[in-house]
Amino acid sequence: MILGCTIGNIHFDYCWVLGLLILIPILTFLYYKYLSQNRYANFRMSSLKAFEGHSLRGWLRMIVPPLLRLIALTLLIIALARPQSIHKKEEIKGEGIDIMLVIDLSSSMLAKDFKPDRLEASKKVAAEFIEKRTFDRVGLVVFAGEAYTQCPPTTDHRMLYDFLSQISCGSLQDGTAIGMGLATAVNRIKDSDSESKVVVLLTDGMNNSGYYDPMDATNMAKTLGIKTYTIGVGTMGDALAPIRRRSDGEYVFGLVPVEIDEDLLVRMAEMTGGKYFRATDNESLSKIYDVIDSLEKSEIEITKIERHSEAFHTFLLWAFILVFIEMLLKYTVLRSVP
């Protein structure tokens, strides 16, 4: 019966043969025990001076040939187990999804009802979401009183992480231009050849800026077959949020009511075949992205191919080389003189 096993990148067809390697330490022990007890007869001599120049050669003759023989035996046992090198290859077939993340950068995203604030919590869960979308092209749009593409759709997620980490409130004119944010994302992926296109739009307020009406942007997304998921972030009631900005650029915080145009966000999502979610803390926001991840699965087929190539001849060759070296030394340099 053939029982195969794999160790690292080497597969052994006859794995049980490797059990014979236990003989190596046993033979080593028996050899040196025999050597210490029966190798040489005892002679009484008046002086050992005549043999002092041969002590190193004697030790080499006692150690090197047996050591080479044991290594050769080890290699022979490994060769008998029929080792094979494994060459792995993955063929990925299918198509990913084009996803645009649209994140609100209005000053209210610094509100402290999320830890440490709404924006940092949103960046964290967005990064975790991106990490799961291995085969998808993901891009990033940011908006406040205006909107722009922070990163076009890409499979280079490391670059996307860098862009995501750099976004901050105050880099854009303040306001909440939801329509501009969606329209920018739709324009970025409308010409993509991907069969599935998705926008995930996150905001914490009401549309009050921009020259593009949110419903016009939604109609454009619907016409182009771009599904939109909307997320409203903010606790119920009041939250500690920026109320003004000092001349040195620092925000002054105070309790303000949380106002999110949920009716608008629901309509935007439903019209395009998406869904609206409300996140009131870090945990619920993370769960929302998990739900979106489960709803938008990429159709990817991965075929794993393994090719084995024989490797026993290498071990066998070195076993014969060591045996030859051992015999050569035994009958030449390390020859025992009677």
Task: Give the topology.
Blueprint: E1 5-7, E2 10-12, H1 23-38, H2 55-80, E3 83-95, E4 98-104, H3 118-132, E5 137-143, E6 147-154, H4 157-166, H5 178-189, E7 197-203, H6 214-223, E8 226-233, E9 238-245, E10 251-257, H7 262-271, E11 276-279, H8 282-295, E12 299-310, H9 312-330
Parallel strand pairs: 4-5, 4-7, 7-8, 8-11
Antiparallel strand pairs: 1-2, 2-3, 3-12, 5-6, 9-10
Keywords:
338 residues, 2 domains, 6-stranded mixed β-sheet, 9 helices, 26% strand, elongated
Question: Could you walk me through the main structural features you see in this protein, from its secondary elements to its overall organization?
Answer:
The protein is of the alpha/beta class and 338 residues long. The chain contains nine helices and twelve strands. The protein folds into two domains: 5-38 and 52-87 and 311-330, no CATH class; 95-297, Rossmann fold (3-Layer(aba) Sandwich). The protein has helices spanning 23-38, 55-80, 118-132, 157-166, 178-189, 214-223, 262-271, 282-295, 312-330, and strands spanning 5-7, 10-12, 83-95, 98-104, 137-143, 147-154, 197-203, 226-233, 238-245, 251-257, 276-279, 299-310. The longest helix has 26 residues, at 55-80. The model has no long low-confidence stretch (mean pLDDT 86).
